[in-house]
Specification:
Blueprint lengths: L4 H9 L5 E6 L2 E6 L5 E5 L7 H14 L3 E5 L3 H16 L6 E5 L3 H7 L1 H6 L2 E4 L8 H16 L4 E6 L5 H12 L8 H22 L7 E6 L3 H14 L5 E2 L7 H17 L5 E2 L13 H12 L8 E4 L8 H25 L7 E5 L5 H7 L2 E4 L9 E5 L2 E6 L4 H17 L5
Parallel strand pairs: 3-4, 3-10, 4-5, 5-6, 6-7, 7-8, 9-10, 11-12, 12-13
Antiparallel strand pairs: 1-2, 13-14, 14-15
Helix pairs in contact: 2-3, 4-6, 7-8, 8-9, 9-10, 10-11, 12-14
Keywords: 4Fe-4S, Iron, Iron-sulfur, Isoprene biosynthesis, Metal-binding, Oxidoreductase
Pathway: Isoprenoid biosynthesis; isopentenyl diphosphate biosynthesis via DXP pathway; isopentenyl diphosphate from 1-deoxy-D-xylulose 5-phosphate: step 5/6
Function: Converts 2C-methyl-D-erythritol 2,4-cyclodiphosphate (ME-2,4cPP) into 1-hydroxy-2-methyl-2-(E)-butenyl 4-diphosphate.
């Protein structure tokens, strides 16, 4: 199987949706339309603290976030948006910013036009724009402003803040189906979908072009998310924003997000993703961006850095040395990528194998672009190095790590250099 097959397979099966452009300055991100999956994140700093928020946006952008969402929930936050945008522009961080509005978005966007202009996209939740006759009025005001300033909108529905009027109506209708009622959860999931699609159509009737609309319907459980997005994908051509609304803490959050997003992406569903995990310990906010990148790269959809293939270790391996070398090489590759990505186009697709013993070591090393097979317990203290399937040298002694790094560096320059044969 060639290195490009997973990506070709994905593109072949991916549903082509509308293309939504999100821009600031000379930076344009396109969601949908067959363009690469967009990674986004959201700050967890207080928006009124524009210095702290700007620094976190910079961190998220440099780690790979192509859109960053910020909370706009008060007059002070709306005023701070302009300061954040100006601060980022001064340091050349032109990442488009998405304003996250709930309850009072219509008022804030109306009262602070500079905020409305500084944002590149608005996110609104139909369940949180108001109730009764105010709901349609408030929604209309936001859409009118989006049209006025030519801004795209994400209609983001969450099951924790579902449109209560629509849910009540659908529950009542379901109760009339004597003996054929649907499970309550299914009614709720179908209501989420209906709410998002109804709101998108309403936005179009109000004048917002269909290529200005992105949809999300977020839930917290993997199977429910897969159900919702399969239904959405069949029902519309709007680009879809994927993500669990509350994935959880630590390993649970990572596994849940990976499971849900991977299944949908591999089905060709989804145009932009966010991994939403609860911050843990001293882990930076950018961790969720790194996880999103790993998901896309593991599926062969996008590539960001050379992949290190390494075995889990067992009783055969000299575990301390093997684990340290695998970690060292992974860090070495990531540290060099800021330079390599410009000098050596395509290096992000490179596979490097660091294997721990003779069982699978030589075979995996031969199948990688470049690999090393370390001696396991009881084996000769030598480590053969393979390049593109051929054994090129054998390393031994205390300098295996430094010598292998030199070999990797030379291989990168030879294979991916601009003037390479």
């Amino acid at each position: 199987m060639s290195m490009t097959e997973p990506l070709e397979y994905y593109n072949l099966n991916r549903k082509k949706t509308n293309a939504v452009k999100v821009s600031w300055n000379d930076k344009t991100v396109i969601i949908g339309g067959g363009y690469p999956i967009v990674i986004q994140s959201m700050t967890n700093t207080g928006t009124t603290n524009y210095i702290e928020t700007s620094l976190q946006i910079k961190e998220l952008f440099l780690s790979g976030a192509e859109l960053v969402r910020i909370t706009v929930n008060s007059s002070e936050a709306a005023k701070s948006v302009i300061n954040i945008r100006n601060q980022l522009d001064k340091i050349g961080i032109y990442v488009p910013l998405v304003g996250d509005f709930h309850y009072n978005g219509h008022k804030l966007l109306s009262d602070f036009p500079d905020c409305a202009k500084a944002l590149s996209k608005y996110r609104i939740n139909p369940g949180n724009v108001g109730s009764g006759h105010y709901k349609d009025d408030n929604f209309s005001k936001i859409i009118d402003i989006a049209c006025k300033y030519d801004k795209p909108v994400r209609i983001g529905v969450n099951w924790g803040s579902i449109d209560k009027d629509l849910l009540s109506l659908n529950v009542d209708e379901n109760n009339k189906l004597k003996g054929n009622q649907l499970d309550y959860k299914l009614v709720m999931l179908d209501t989420l979908i209906e709410s998002a699609l109804n709101s998108a159509k309403q936005a179009e009737r109000l004048g917002l072009d269909s290529n200005k609309i992105v949809i999300s319907c977020k839930v917290s459980q993997v199977r429910e998310l897969i159900y919702v997005y399969n239904s959405l994908s069949k029902s519309c051509n709007y680009p879809l924003h994927l993500g669990l609304t509350e994935a959880g803490v630590g390993d649970k959050g990572i596994v849940s997000s990976t499971s849900a997003l991977s299944i949908l992406l591999n089905q060709g569903i989804g145009d932009t993703i966010r991994v939403s995990i609860t911050p843990e310990g001293n882990n930076p906010r950018s961790r969720e961006v790194l996880i999103a990148k790993e998901i896309l790269q593991s599926l062969g959809i996008r590539f960001y850095s050379p992949s290190v293939i390494s075995c889990p270790g067992c009783g055969r391996t000299n575990s301390n040395f093997f684990q340290k070398l695998a970690s060292d090489i992974d860090i070495f590759l990531k540290e060099h990528m800021p330079i390599w990505k410009d000098l050596y186009p395509g290096v992000e697709r490179m596979n490097v194998a660091v294997m721990g013993c003779i069982v699978n070591g030589p075979g995996e090393s031969k199948n990688a672009d470049i690999g090393i097979s370390l001696p396991g317990d009881g084996e000769l203290p030598v480590a053969p190095v393979f390049i593109e399937g051929n054994r090129v040298t054998t390393l031994k002694g205390d300098s295996i790590s430094s010598e292998f790094k030199v070999i990797v560096t030379n291989y990168v320059a030879t294979r991916y250099g601009r003037f390479s044969p």
